[in-house]
Amino acid sequence: MGGKTDLDRVVAYIPAEVKRELEAWAEAEERSVSWVVAKLIDKALQERRQSQQAPKVVNLR
């Protein structure tokens, strides 16, 4: 681990309780906390993109 990567780093400050929960999740998945957070961010961005692309329904009444 700790090899070279082409990924950028993002720093976030979170409550200790949230960090503990992320650590437990990562351990259960046999992944790193960074991996879990990256997947959560990716999912949130996909959902955001989909909602932005959704056609706006206009009520013409």
Architecture overview:
This protein has 61 residues and is mainly alpha-helical. 57% of the residues lie in helices and 0% in strands. The protein contains 2 helices and no strands. It is elongated and about 55 Å long. The relative contact order is 0.08. The mean pLDDT is 91.
Summarize the structure.
The protein is mainly α and about 60 residues long. The chain contains 2 helices and no strands.
Strand-helix topology:
Blueprint: H1 16-29, H2 33-53
Helix pairs in contact: 1-2
The portion of residues assigned to helices is 55-70%
Number of helices: 2
**What would you call the shape?**
elongated
Report the structural category. Answer: mainly alpha
Gyration radius from CA atoms, angstroms:
17 Å
Number of strands: 0
Characteristics:
61 residues, mainly alpha
